[in-house]
């Protein structure tokens, strides 16, 4: 088959994740997959530097690390408050995770969000060359495509949403929801994590924009775009390698020593209210209450590095988890056993892989999650001869693919309790069969599959336009 020359790729996301060159070390799967594509196409990863300056200058800092060019800009402290901590993380994040009760609708946030998106458009525009593919990521940047179009950019531009898309009626609570959604029509391809998210988007388009859906095509007025479900995967092969690295083996060995023959349940999440950590602790508490014979035989290791600490709802979830883990430990602990090891810090990736492998159960209970990569990493890290069991919330995007996990409703402590009991008693053959089915999916729909699916769709739109 004739190889098409690869278009140069420009990736835009709030933060850039330049390759660190550590291979199976600390680099996330997303960075690995996108870096490979950027390297092959001599592309650019554009985003915010994470730094603030008193006055915005628009100066771009170019760097080159391990063959990948990154281009970053500094923002003002007010931008950080209104755009990042404000509209992105206090308005859109809660609303898109179905938490309208936590969403704050400040007009200043919306203005800051618009201003920063305009800043991104103004600084990015001169970097874009004729045949570049532009791929914009996530809820921080919904309007960026439309702002680039206003500046005359005619390139193929795609957008991928990493978080859920809310049901249509819920989205109506966002002031200017229509304006926000209409900015998506500026893209050639819009990608969602799940069919569920895509259907919610379709509902909005039909009901609010009087649009029409025909397969992957979404038409509103005279504008037609492609909208697809394109579930993100992990760098599975690399994660399997990481789980067999010497750091992972050592972590596994140390963990096994420290578990002292007890069964370990593992949870790993950014400390975020969407991850269902309270519900997880309550479900585990139910298990302890109704299985007194298991005290001292099992424990939960919850790794939860704090995130977004400037936002009040994150401070609140942190205090309630401190209180809840303390209460459960106080009620059930013995001099030689603590039921929950609750750790507020992060660990290197290969060490984490070794810890996953030592756990009998991966407990993943988000109330809503775009995908949830931890579920896939837990599967990839297992020993095929003696795999652990994944307990997975049906509200994680990953549940559409990992249908052989034990799927639970995280709102029900009973469900979590029963699934823990079922997993701990599960015969080896059933564990292997469930794991194999999940692993087949994790391996085949990995992060490179995801990237190709999206960029192929984006290149395809151009071919259609030219035909
Ligand atoms: C968003 C969406 C979607 C966590 N603790 C440590 C650590 N992690 C790593 C995990 C995993 C990543 O962070 C978390 O990814 P998730 O997918 O679970 O969740 P979000 O951060 O909310 O990501 C989500 C994702 O975007 C991708 O589209 O799946 O739905 O919300 O890779 O391993 N990594 C290390 N140490 C830690 O302590 N090294």
TrEMBL record:
Q: Which domain of life is it from?
A: Bacteria
- List this protein's GO terms for biological process: trehalose biosynthetic process
A Pfam match: Glyco_transf_20
Tell me which SUPFAM superfamilies the record gives: UDP-Glycosyltransferase/glycogen phosphorylase (SSF53756)
Q: Which GO terms describe its molecular function?
A: alpha,alpha-trehalose-phosphate synthase (UDP-forming) activity
Q: Which family does it belong to?
A: Belongs to the glycosyltransferase 20 family.
Protein name, per record: Trehalose-6-phosphate synthase
Q: What is the lineage of its organism?
A: Bacteria, Pseudomonadati, Pseudomonadota, Alphaproteobacteria, Sphingomonadales
């Amino acid at each position: 088959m004739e190889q098409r020359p690869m278009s140069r790729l420009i990736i835009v996301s709030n933060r850039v994740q330049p390759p660190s060159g550590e291979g199976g070390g600390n680099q996330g799967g997303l960075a690995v997959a996108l870096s490979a594509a950027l390297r092959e196409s001599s592309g650019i990863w554009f985003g915010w530097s994470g730094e603030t300056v008193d006055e915005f200058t628009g100066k771009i800092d170019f760097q080159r690390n391990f063959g990948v060019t990154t281009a970053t800009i500094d923002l003002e402290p007010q931008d950080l408050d209104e755009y990042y901590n404000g509209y992105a993380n206090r308005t859109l994040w809660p609303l898109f995770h179905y938490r309208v009760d936590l969403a704050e609708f400040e007009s200043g946030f919306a203005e800051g969000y618009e201003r920063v998106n305009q800043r991104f458009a103004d600084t990015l525009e001169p970097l874009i060359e004729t045949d570049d593919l532009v791929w914009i990521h996530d809820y921080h940047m919904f309007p960026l495509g439309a702002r680039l179009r206003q500046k005359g950019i005619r390139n193929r531009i795609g957008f991928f949403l990493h978080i859920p898309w809310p049901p249509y009626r819920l989205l109506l609570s966002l002031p200017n929801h229509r304006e926000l959604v209409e900015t998506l029509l500026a893209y050639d391809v819009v990608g969602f994590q799940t069919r569920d998210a895509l259907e919610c988007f379709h509902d909005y388009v039909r009901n609010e924009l009087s649009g029409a859906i025909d397969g992957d095509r979404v038409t509103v007025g005279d504008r037609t775009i492609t909208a697809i479900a394109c579930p993100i995967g992990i760098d599975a092969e690399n994660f399997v390698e990481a789980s067999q690295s010497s750091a992972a083996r050592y972590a596994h060995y140390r963990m096994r020593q420290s578990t002292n023959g007890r069964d370990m349940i593992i949870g790993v999440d950014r400390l975020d209210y969407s991850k269902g950590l309270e519900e997880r602790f309550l479900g585990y508490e139910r298990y302890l209450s109704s299985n007194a014979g298991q005290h001292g035989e099992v424990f939960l290791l919850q790794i939860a590095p704090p995130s977004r600490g400037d936002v009040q709802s994150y401070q609140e979830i942190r205090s309630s988890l401190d209180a809840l883990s303390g209460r459960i430990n106080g009620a059930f602990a013995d001099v030689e056993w603590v039921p929950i090891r609750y750790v507020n810090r992060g660990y290197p990736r290969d060490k984490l892989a070794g810890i996953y492998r030592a756990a009998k159960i991966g407990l993943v209970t988000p109330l809503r999650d775009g995908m949830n990569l931890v579920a896939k990493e837990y599967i990839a890290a297992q020993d095929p001869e003696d795999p652990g069991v994944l307990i997975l919330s049906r509200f994680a995007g990953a549940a559409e693919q990992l249908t052989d996990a034990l799927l639970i409703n995280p709102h029900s402590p009973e469900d979590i309790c029963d699934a823990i009991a079922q997993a701990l008693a599960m015969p080896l053959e059933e564990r292997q069969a469930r794991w194999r089915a999940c692993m087949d999916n994790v391996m085949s729909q990995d992060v490179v599959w995801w990237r190709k699916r999206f960029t192929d769709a984006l290149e395809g739109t151009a071919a259609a336009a030219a035909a």
